[in-house]
Amino acid sequence: MTDAPTQLLIGGELRDAVSGRTFPTFDPAHGGELATVAQAGTDDVDAAVTAARGAFDGAWAKTAPAKRARMLNRLAQLLDGQTDELAELESRNSGKAKWQCAAEIKVAVSTLEFFAGTAQHLYGRSHVVNPAVVTYTLREPVGVVGAIIPWNYPLMMAAWKVAPALATGNTIILKPASATPLTAIRFGELALEAGIPAGVLNVIPGPGAEVGEAMAAHPGIDKIAFTGATDTGRRIAAVAAKTLKRVSLELGGKSPNIVFADADLDAAVIGSLWAIYYSAGQSCEARSRILVADQLYDAFASAFAEKARALTVGDPLVDDTKVGSLISRAHAEKVRRFVEIGVEDGGEMLAGGDLTLAEGLDADAFVAPTVIGGVSNDSRIAQEEVFGPVVTLSRFTDEKEAIGFANDVRYGLAATVWTADSARGHRVAQKIRSGAVGINTPFVAFPGVPFGGFKESGYGREQSLEALDLYTETKAVLQGTSPKPVNPFGT
Ligand code: NAD
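# nicotinamide-adenine-dinucleotide complex -> structure
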């Protein structure tokens, strides 16, 4: 068990749910319950909306941007100073390697700093319509934001929503995933410590189908910022349509990793390994389909499978662990079933299968880094999001076919291209239908760089100046400058 806070944070106070209900949250890698958490219901959504609306109508939206920036920077410092404790809590609650959780907390810190910097640069435009009418635009906060986030990058996802929302003067209600609610509550506490007023950031863990839907439907919430599964995003967009609130959706992916024959083999192998097995493959932008040029296929497949087999899988709290547990036994079971489907459909297991784990770990929650070779791009394993440490290898004959395979999925979140020919790298990048393309680098997300999807990977771009559009309304102000009265009716 942990001594981390486990109550709802509403209006600056930690409190139990109105119903008094609670739910358990777990330590998936070691097995067992980690904490009992207050479970929000619709009454708590109402209370959070009242608190967030009160804070919005009160001082927050009118607070000078420089002051908001200072508070966000202070929150970044507090987070930075507690990286180790928070990473341990996140690792225990999610099963992810602790050093990865720490790296993600550093991204949360940079995200807060990036958006703190934008608070004083919310520029409008001016325009002279004609000599008698001058206009300018104001960027105003949308109002109360409802943020619904997943379990795979809990604290980082919270920062991705909270930082732009607060920088632009909104207040926010954050609903973490039930599997990983603990660091979000602590984040809310740190915000108060940073001087962010009560009610500006509220945190209400609870079931998605009840609390998340109540948020999507609530007339007092002006915008939903969602990250999670594509089907959930579709549902949220449908529910939110009744009140016509703004919605941004960061959804699933089935991202390609294209290795051309002229690629640097070592760099492509190492980069591709990271691009799929980081976070045990539970990343929306995981490059889970490796497409390899015919000429390089055998060399790539054997080098990649050997490196995948050599990755240290085990206790997420141990420093040299590269791949921890999955989020739950149930999810690991789903991933194992996908591996079976891949093989039933004709794929060849090049790495994966049984694991030897240290005592004290729940083996049922782990899946070995798995490589399935000889996969056809139209098979289920190549089309559906597995969300685990499983990658497919497929061959292509030329650039056109590689691009065709890359785009022939319903998702479009990220892609990587490995080639020594930089003209080809840029040419292919232009033809891929996804929100980000890395050329000879596995990295596709940094604060300052737009992140989001084409197609069924969602809409809206986070982590960048583009995100400011998601959290602001543009207002046009028009000023007549003629000394004569305006008389359009000619009366
Ligand atoms: P999920 O959609 O099941 O849950 C995400 C959040 O939505 C949780 O807080 C959950 O409680 C809530 N929710 C569930 N049903 C809801 C409903 N009917 N109404 C409102 N809220 C509801 O997703 P998950 O399993 O937590 O996360 C994995 C998925 O998230 C994967 O598909 C992954 O690709 C995606 N993801 C996308 C990105 C991105 O930026 N594109 C980032 C991380 C994860």
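# post-check
The mean pLDDT is 97.
The chain has two domains: 8-251+457-476, 256-439.
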